[in-house]
């Protein structure tokens, strides 16, 4: 797997595999017999970074147990996220210095470690000034519990505002941004208060060369030909992905996959990883076959002309 360079506040370089192993409900203690095989294979294939979050139900405990068993904590990177509303009060924002500290404290306990490489803010609350938020993130870097910080599901103006605040005040700047990014055109965010990278954000990343970590990078398998226009049974997928642009993109994905003798879903992931800026994609493989397919996709390089054609330009 290709390695992407992330820089810390002290200008230390952290090399991150361009495919991050995600951690959905598949990664839980009671499923470790199956999950462990996938995690082990990910490492064998050159992967070195795991994406998790305090909001995810089971993954941090499972990942912590796996690292303890393998004794490999010092050879992998962890990105966890904080500040997500609790499930029982999803409409109550938790982007506060207190929540940042509390979430990280719990994450470290579950992960059985004293630090993480990357801490991201899982949500934003635009009613809160960026200053106190970024000061709280900086405090965790100074404490040694975090090496680099970033944001997830923040709009570009807030990202720029936060980055400017950090640079002007001499505190830890953002090392990454993690929005949704895939080949798909979405009708609406899959989850409330989530952000998809638009053209303006992608152009900013190209200009700044700030790493981007793309979640839902394979559009829930839309480009694996799992769905059809007359199948409306999956209401969530219909609401988010069913539109004329995506059906046309699917046709083009299938055509290009045939030409390149690969799977359509691999073309969609190659599109994400071929962006003109440092980028990693979070995947949610639950089988070794799915994982190996994604790793193979990371080796497919698309030309600018192919990228534009897939994106209906």
Automatic annotation (TrEMBL):
GO CC, one annotated term: cytosol
Signal peptide positions (record): none
Gene Ontology MF term list: oxidoreductase activity
Keywords tagged on the record: Oxidoreductase
Gene3D superfamilies from the UniProt entry: NADP-dependent oxidoreductase domain (3.20.20.100)
NADP-dependent oxidoreductase domain ranges (all copies): 31-308
InterPro entries on file: AKR_Detox_Biosynth, NAD(P)_OxRdtase_dom_sf, NADP_OxRdtase_dom
Protein name: Aldo/keto reductase
